[in-house]
Specification:
single chain; 303 residues; alpha/beta; Alpha-Beta Plaits; 4-stranded antiparallel beta sheet; 8 helices; 12 strands; globular; disordered C terminus
Length: 303
C-alpha cells in the first residue's frame, strides 16, 4: 500500500510536487548534454511521451517543468486538489509506461530501466515553487559544469557565490553547484541537547533530507555527528560539509566519503584560511554555524 512520505500531507491534495527518479545503475540512457542543452535519445523521448500522458490519468494534475537528464528525470506537477490518484500511483505509471517503451525500443524485454522508488518534495508556496522550477530549468547547465570539471578532488580557492558571505575567502572541494540547490537546511544542534529532545531534532532533520533537503553544517557536536552518520546510510543524501578550520591537508577519509565527493553528493567548504589548524575551537565552530545559517538564507522547510 502506498503511504504518504510526509505524514501530515494527503498526496492527493493541493500542492506543487517536485519528483525525481534515476535509471538503473545510473546508466546514461535518456539524453546527452551539449552546450548546456538536452539532446534527447529515443529512450528519453519515450519517457517524455509517458510524462505527457499523466494528466489524462487524473485531470486534477497538470504538468509544469521537466528535465530528462542522461541518467535521471526531474518533473514538477501541480495538483489542484481532489485528485483520485495518489502521486505515487502516477509516478509508478510513468515509470511503467516508459519502461515498456524503452524495452521495446532496445529490443531488451528484461532490461532494468529504473532504480526503485522516487524522490518527492512538496512546495506549498509560490516562492518555493519558483525556486524548484528554476532548479529544473537550470539542471542541464549544472550537469555540463559537473561533467566538464572532473577536478572535484582539487582544491578551489577564493570562491565567489551569491550565497557565500563576500567578506570571506572561501575554499572548497567537490560540487559547488550544491550551493544553487533551492532547499538548504542548516544543521546546528546544541551540545546541551540530549536524550529524546536531541533525537527528535535529528529525526526532523533526516525527515527533511528524505523529502529533498540538502543539509549544510560543520557536524561537530554529538548530535550533528549522529546526523552525519545517518546520512552515510542514505546513498542519495546530499550535504555541504563546512570545516571550522583550513583545508590545507584535507583528504576524504574512507570509501563512503570518497564516493560521495566523486559522485557530486558532497561539497566540502571552509571559510577559514589554510593555516587554521584542524582543531574544533569553540569560536570557530560558532562562526561556522552562523555561516551555515546565512548560506541557507531562509531556504528551510517549504511551507
Amino acid at each position: 500500500m502506498l503511504r504518504p512520505r510526509l505524514a501530515t500531507h494527503d498526496y492527493r491534495g493541493t500542492g506543487f510536487y517536485f519528483i525525481t527518479f534515476a535509471t538503473h545503475l545510473r546508466r546514461p540512457l535518456l539524453s546527452q548534454i551539449a552546450d548546456g542543452r538536452i539532446r534527447l535519445a529515443p529512450e528519453g523521448l519515450a519517457l517524455l511521451e509517458a510524462w505527457r500522458l499523466l494528466p489524462a490519468d487524473d485531470p486534477a494534475y497538470s504538468l509544469r517543468y521537466s528535465a530528462v537528464m542522461p541518467d535521471h528525470f526531474h518533473g514538477i506537477l501541480v495538483c489542484a486538489g481532489g485528485a483520485t490518484q495518489h502521486l505515487g500511483t502516477l509516478v509508478a505509471r510513468l515509470k511503467g509506461r516508459s519502461r515498456q517503451a524503452i524495452r521495446k525500443l532496445r529490443n531488451e524485454p528484461h532490461l532494468e530501466v529504473w532504480e526503485a522508488g522516487y524522490y518527492d518534495c512538496i512546495a506549498f508556496s509560490q516562492e518555493v515553487f519558483d525556486a524548484f522550477s528554476a532548479y529544473v530549468r537550470d539542471n542541464p547547465i549544472r550537469w555540463q559544469l559537473r561533467h566538464d570539471n572532473p577536478q572535484w578532488f582539487r582544491k578551489h580557492s577564493a570562491i565567489a557565490h551569491p550565497r557565500l558571505p563576500p567578506e570571506t575567502r572561501w575554499t572548497a572541494y567537490g560540487d559547488q553547484t550544491l550551493l544553487d540547490y533551492p532547499w538548504l537546511l542548516p544543521v546546528v544542534i546544541s551540545r546541551r541537547l540530549e536524550g529524546a529532545a536531541r533525537q527528535a531534532e535529528i529525526n526532523d532533520i533526516l525527515a527533511q533530507v528524505d523529502q529533498g533537503a540538502v543539509v549544510i553544517g560543520g557536524f561537530i557536536s554529538p548530535g550533528e555527528r549522529l546526523v552525519a552518520q545517518a546520512l552515510a546510510t542514505r546513498p542519495r543524501a546530499r550535504m555541504i560539509y563546512m570545516h571550522p578550520w583550513g583545508l590545507a591537508r584535507y583528504k576524504p577519509h574512507g570509501r563512503t566519503a570518497t564516493e560521495r565527493l566523486a559522485s557530486g553528493k558532497t561539497l566540502v567548504l571552509s571559510g577559514f584560511p589554510d593555516e587554521v589548524a584542524a582543531v574544533a575551537q569553540r569560536d570557530n565552530c560558532l562562526r561556522n554555524n552562523a555561516w551555515a545559517q546565512a548560506i541557507a538564507a531562509g531556504r528551510s522547510r517549504p511551507q
